[in-house]
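Quick board copy: two proteins, each given as sequence then tokens.
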Amino acid sequence: MPETITSRDAARFPIVASCTLLGLYLFFKIFSQEYINLLLSMYFFVLGILALSHTISPMMNRFFPANFPNKQYQLLFTQGSGESKEEIVNYEFDTKDLVCLALSSVVGVWYLLRKHWIANNLFGLAFSLNGVELLHLNNVSTGCILLGGLFIYDVFWVFGTNVMVTVAKSFEAPIKLVFPQDLLEKGLDADNFAMLGLGDIVIPGIFIALLLRFDISLKKNTHTYFYTSFVAYIFGLGLTIFIMHIFKHAQPALLYLVPACIGFPLLVALAKGEVTEMFRFWLSGSAHASGSCLMPEFQCSLFHAAALSWSLQARRAQLVRAAMNPLLKSCLTHQDLPTSPRCLARRPAWLIPCSRNCPVPADAGSRALVPCSHCRWGPLSVSLAR
């Protein structure tokens, strides 16, 4: 299941990353680098095989013939017995997945024995693709917080200290893509590499993926923001390589990628007059994206008749409970809230407070109600159900 990054997670991320980076640096200074890398190699050997197998599986399915004997398997681990039995692992796979796993294992053994840069890059790309697939940003503001925080993190640890460069050079694991600078001279045996951390791929990647979802939500059959941010990423990466070549010094890639990936789409949004829509866009959860109204037609009408009479100042939860609680109690329960486009189509845009007085924008032209991070079913679920 994809993991959604909230604004709180985004604010914490640079701090957690800094602590992890500094911990690795101290580990390499205190303990033997050989034993640490041996342990990490075994760990990433297993993870890399699984990630690469998952990545190539859709592509490999095209090469299997129609009459391929594909059998289904299930790996099930349970704990306890009888009514107290609890599933620990329940994984279903088939023969095609086993073939992909075998091919990935060949790459894994190649990496484990030779540490070849091609095997490293195959695992690194697999990790990156899985990271973009499994991590989602809930809105553009969260993406800006995450990218902005990691911008400072990257600049500080590269220019302010030698920690980042030391860890990157000492860490023999596929957490970076390496590009041989002496490929023309030594061919596949090249040993002089430039490096690009996977974080410089995954973090901008999940932001670009969010803009692609925003493009789709506009229903204009264009991917303007996706293509703009993708070109911006290529531009920022090219600029990083150019500066690194000129100054002969390691460069924090996010120093150039963050302004490009945020600035270019923002300029396009300003030109098209869609800045408000961009920052209002919210990656809804399944409860908000289902498209089914949770209230009967009559109750929904009563709700909107009451809601449209509210002023902006009276939208606080305390005032709503005091002034309109008798009416709303008769037609609302904890989970009876309008969370579908059908409900939103009957009212204009307004701001509604959640149970903790967080103003959450809900636009009549949007595809789904913008959820509040404090309220699972919608901004009014706790405030009005009392």
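And the next:
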Amino acid sequence: MYWGLRKLQTLNGVKLFVFDLHRLQSQRRQELGNMETSQRDELSSFLTVLPPVDFCCVYGSTLHPNNQDKSKMVDYILGVSDPLQWHSENLKMNSDHYASWMVHLGGARLITEVADKVGVGVHFNPFVSWNDRKLKYGVVRMNDLVQDILDWNRFYLSGRLQKPVHLLVDNLDIEDVNSVNKRAAVSAALLLLPSKFTEEDLYAKICSLSYMGDLRMLFAEDTNKVNKIVKGQFDLFQSMYKPFLEDCQTKNLLRFSSAETNLVQDSSLSASRSLVSSLPASVRSQMGKLLGEKKILSETGRVSGEVCIGSREVAARCMEKVMKRRVMVSSARQAVSGFLAAGAINATMYLSQKMRKAWNSRS
């Protein structure tokens, strides 16, 4: 079962349509127009050899302007209603995409169980050859994807969707649901930033949220990864977050200045409370356990908890602690799941490539 957008409006008390839907769709069409039709067709052609999906996006270096390097791996996220059924069908069509031990020992059931019970609900097939390119695709249950987008319960794919992606399939309007995720990302980033900063600082902070506590950053990721992502896709970040910054400006949380540090935010306690209130419920709940919370009775009679904030700095440190813990657990679980899913040879190849980039960035 999927949640329709009308139902999503009331899920966990989150208001989805804070922004003008037509404006978001118009901007999205503009972003998609920036991708050459030939490139989009090439990326979409891979889906013809897979079972049908409800959601598909492409991310990573493929999105960098003027990227003509076909040696780099193309990354896909595929959303499906039933991973067990989908992997069963895909094994008949593309058994060579999977680690041989998983195919022979348990098939689709083992693949799904490793993703759900060891990892964070995503199964990745790396080093898949298609049209002289290397691809990696991750398969996730649609309900799990929606929950992570709305509540950051795993903060895995929700973190990915806070960065630029190109949608190839979106049958269930995940693009619109993701507006909640992006709004929360802006609030979290503002809470961690000083009163004056640049637009690039803001996008770098948003981008860094999903790497806080990531164990791979210690030894297997480029230390300059965040800056490279933001500088390489700055225009995409701008178009992606423009309506959310305008909303902050309308609420007097943020204003643009002509100075070199072209953004100034309200750092008052009331503004900080407003930012915290825009974070997902699971994050607020964890913060409430650490800082304390008071019960608020709404006009509709609904009781909700409000995090007790003594100062902006304390609130920022608390949120950072909660997010680091969440990312650390998810990244560790997914690393183990990914090693099992890829098989020893592919996993070693993938890790060695990552470590080579990491060491080059440190030298």
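Board note added afterward: The first strand starts at residue 55 and ends at 59.
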